[in-house]
Amino acid sequence: MQPTAYQQLVSVFTRIYRFEHLAAMVGWDQAAMMPPEGNDARGAALAELDVLIHHSLTDPALAATIAAASSEDLNEAEQASLREMKRQWEHANLLPASLVEAKTLAGSKCSHEWRTQRANNDWDGFLANFREVVRLSREEAQLLSQHSGLSPYEALMNKYEPGMTCAELDRIFGDVKQWLPELIQQAMTKQSKEPVIAAQGPFAIESQRALGLEVMKLLGFNFAAGRLDVSHHPFCGGVAEDVRITTRYTEDDFTQSMMGIVHETGHARYEQNLPRDLVHLPVGRARSMAVHESQSLSFEMQLGRSPAFLALIQPLVQQHLGEQAAFSASNLAKIYTRVKPDFIRVDADELTYPAHVILRYEIERALIDGDIEPDEIPALWNQKMLAYLGVDTQGNFKNGCLQDIHWTDGSFGYFPSYTLGAMYAAQFFATIRSQFPDLDQRIAAGDLAPIFDWLKTHIWTPASRWETAELIQRATGESLNPAHFRQHLEQRYLG
Amino acid sequence: MQPTAYQQLVSVFTRIYRFEHLAAMVGWDQAAMMPPEGNDARGAALAELDVLIHHSLTDPALAATIAAASSEDLNEAEQASLREMKRQWEHANLLPASLVEAKTLAGSKCSHEWRTQRANNDWDGFLANFREVVRLSREEAQLLSQHSGLSPYEALMNKYEPGMTCAELDRIFGDVKQWLPELIQQAMTKQSKEPVIAAQGPFAIESQRALGLEVMKLLGFNFAAGRLDVSHHPFCGGVAEDVRITTRYTEDDFTQSMMGIVHETGHARYEQNLPRDLVHLPVGRARSMAVHESQSLSFEMQLGRSPAFLALIQPLVQQHLGEQAAFSASNLAKIYTRVKPDFIRVDADELTYPAHVILRYEIERALIDGDIEPDEIPALWNQKMLAYLGVDTQGNFKNGCLQDIHWTDGSFGYFPSYTLGAMYAAQFFATIRSQFPDLDQRIAAGDLAPIFDWLKTHIWTPASRWETAELIQRATGESLNPAHFRQHLEQRYLG
Ligand SMILES: [Zn+2]
Ligand SMILES: [Zn+2]
Asked: Which residues contact A312 (CB under 8 A, 6 or more apart)?
């Protein structure tokens, strides 16, 4: 019997998943294990693999197979699977190879030189490369926009957040901008009367690692299907069947590596609990970047920095790092909720973080839609930083508009995912709390099952079965609602 | 300008090398890093990669390109390169895909069930699977033999040792059989009067690892292009640009892991010093299995177990593992040269090891050439073990003919490489010693440059430029001569 068109697609995408497995594992190795002289050969091998994956997705025969599958008699699950295959296929086929290649080249040149330019505060040097990245990204956005009917910026953002619109982002971020600056001020005023005891290092790396492993265990990380290692930039990599998370240790501070592990464990549990029987197909994989981030932020922000969780793990901290006044549950909670408007997004606290994201969203959207040019960025950056956070970045490019890697290789449209993830997480926890009014007591007592069960049922198992909006609606009974995020922040920072 | 046929082949083989890079790295990861639930996805990804490499090598267009390159005006280096490409291409194309597949299937079944059968001493159970592996291996040998004009067994052996003949093996192993049994007896008699002090554990794994790393440094391992990790079966993996060696630690004995590291470092330095500008082509890679083993055994047997080297590293042993009477240089030398005929090849000492290899060579050759059938193996095994080593294996299959993995998946013809490697190593050191009569003093003083320089010039840099026989002739001024091996053993064990 001939395989159906849908079955043929399953074979094609399964094969691609095998190649992605290889890319994920050697990518992890490159960041976590590889000695420096291996880099050129690794780069060449990864590039060869990219070509192979791209060829598999741009095989001209696929168009007919997808068309044929669309008129086959598919059940609802298969239809969802086909929809996700088609999305991936379109994404690979919409752009001419010449544009993809030009953008990759311009992006890696700009990205590579940015490392030095940032250190040297060299905005002009950066601008010389960056103009070309912007030009090509606009071209990409234009082509994607023509196909989808979305605005150019929306079309780029939809690579990461399928279904999200600028209208919705404006509604949500507009809401946040109404109340966030004042909330930051109130929180700072409140905290100025509540001194924090700083933890006294050094903290041996081995002890930090042992503590991290225990926290991962508590959070349900499956060590038979994953590992914890070290890399310069912490990330969650590998594949669903074998998730590799990393952290970075410094002897003088354990708080960042510990909470970083909590964050990556959230990403990891999503991956580890995707439906194993579907994980080789697009429909069986993570819904979107924001949904992925909603899992890490459920773990880090909703659970990890809560007083209840910090009370739960406080004995572990003492057991591994010794006894200190700083390790009381209430002081740990203060450490992990300290608010301080500052330059750097990745070091920002929970409360000021959305301001960093909204600023970037507004600038990158204007840039892609052609409302501003690259040389206008620094002034705009400074103006918005002053307005949202009261931080002056004039002339300080390295800690201002040169701080992120995202724009350097043309990854425009990614930033909103961070704050969308934080909002989804708040909305999920509002739902969980409505079902378990005693959630904090349960957490403090070590009963994390209400959280894990809910996430498993409503987020991990569905994977990409539904579009994001439907996933959120089914899980929480309403569409994305920033009121939950506000309520969470007010409760934590003013409550 | 059109690329020449030779240039086209360079592109094809470079691409294959990129894929082999991926296979090597995820293969290392599978043995050294991967958690158990990752195994199925890893197996599937590796199988997909195998198919891809096989397809690349069996592309029908390659035949014409190779033919065209053969009539191009190539310099001597390019001719050697073409010769090695052709060898790899022929190896991949000589066998029908159906046979390759059948042998892979039968081999993995037999190999997989062997793990349990060996533990259960279940020869009959093993035989049921093994007959099919033998049948298919004979078929493979027949086809390779028809093409090459070699005998069936020679044709299989030539996969690992191109150019080696049974006539030469018979000459060499025949020679060894003349003097080895008596030498073993004499050594044992001599050693019975020389008590050894056993080292007293436990030895902390971290200390063993630190010691191993220092020994690797002393041996010139390039840590910018490689790593040391842990796996159940120690090996040297990765790629020339990034060599991954492994060892296995037990707390009650450090001697095996330490000398295992010395052994794998020998393999690693060969890989790390292959010509970087040619390593993407077959001609730039290791000459043969025996030549590879000659490097690990140069490090382990010629250098590593010598009294001079043990005197050199003795302070490191004490520094990392504490002071013990057992750690005197002379006692370490006794530990590392103790002779004891026993069941297991991989645990055998330097002196009895060749007997294990010759026994296997004689049996596997008769089996492939059809002179014996699989069910005759145990009797033959027992008879030869008694004759060569005085060890009775009757009924003891698990420590007899079921001990090795090689036959279970049809890797017939590999065993001779081990002892050929030991002989090449002895011959290399005889040459080095003739140029540096004070070699032992130099070693004891930490001057290992004479050894590394010689190996680099004569073995590492030439890679596969010449056939093995020519490589040995150029390096040592004579063809493979087992007299050097005998002299080395007599000097070490009776001297
Ligand atoms: Zn994250
Ligand atoms: Zn070896």
From this structure: A218, A443, A444, A445, A446
The rounded distance, in Å, linking the Cα atoms of A293 and A412 is: 17
The pTM (predicted TM-score) of the whole model is: 0.95
Residues B196-223 have pLDDT tens digits of: 999 999 999 999 999 999 999 999 999 9
Going by the DSSP 8-state scheme, the letter that residue A282 receives in this structure is: G
Q: From CA B490, how far away is CA B488, in angstroms rounded?
A: 6
ipTM above 0.90, yes or no: yes
The model's confidence at residue A242, banded by pLDDT at 50, 70 and 90, is very high
Q: Across the interface, which of B33, B37, B224 has its CB nearest the CB of A241?
A: B37
| Joined tokens for residue A67 | 């068309």
Interacting residues of A227 by C-beta distance below 8 A, sequence separation 6+: A238, A242, A243, A244, A245, B33, B35
Residues in chain B: 495
The Cα A239–Cα A237 span in angstroms is: 7
CB-CB: which of B15, B40, B225 is closest to A38?
B225
Provide the 3-class DSSP secondary structure of residue B185: helix
Give which of B219, B231, B207, B233 is closest to B267, Cα–Cα: B219
Structure tokens at B211: 């010691």
Interval B286-341: pLDDT, tens: 999 999 999 999 999 999 999 999 999 999 999 999 999 999 999 999 999 999 99
Q: Which of B29, B48, B241 is nearest residue A29 as measured by Cβ atoms?
A: B29
Q: Is B21 helix (H, G, I), strand (E, B) or coil?
A: helix
Is A271's Cβ below 8 Å from some Cβ in B? no
Alpha-carbon distance A367 to A141, whole Å? 11
* pLDDT over threshold 90, residue B97: no
| SS3 assignment, position A242 | strand
**What H or E segment, with its residue span, contains residue A220?**
none
> Residue B51's CB: how many other CB atoms inside 10 A?
12
CB A400 within 8 Å of CB A279: no
Pairing of strands B236-239, A236-239: unpaired
Q: A242–B45: do the CB atoms touch at under 8 Å?
A: no
Q: Is A213 exposed, middle or buried (0-12, 13-18, 19+ CB in 10 A)?
A: middle
Identify the closest residue of chain A to B49 by CA–CA distance: A19
Chain A to chain B Cβ contacts (< 8 Å): 93
The full set of domains in chain A, from first to last, is: 5-150 (no CATH), 151-201+255-495 (1.10.1370.30)
Q: How far is B232 from chain A (nearest CA, A)?
A: 17
Count of C-beta atoms within a 10 Å radius of residue A111: 18
Output the CA A268–ligand 1 centroid distance in Å: 10
Catalytic residue among B264, B271, B293, B362: B264
Whether B21 contacts chain A with CB within 8 A: yes
Which of B470, B493, B145 is CA-nearest to residue B301? B493
Residue pLDDT, tens place only, B389-430 = 999 999 999 999 999 999 999 999 999 999 999 999 999 999
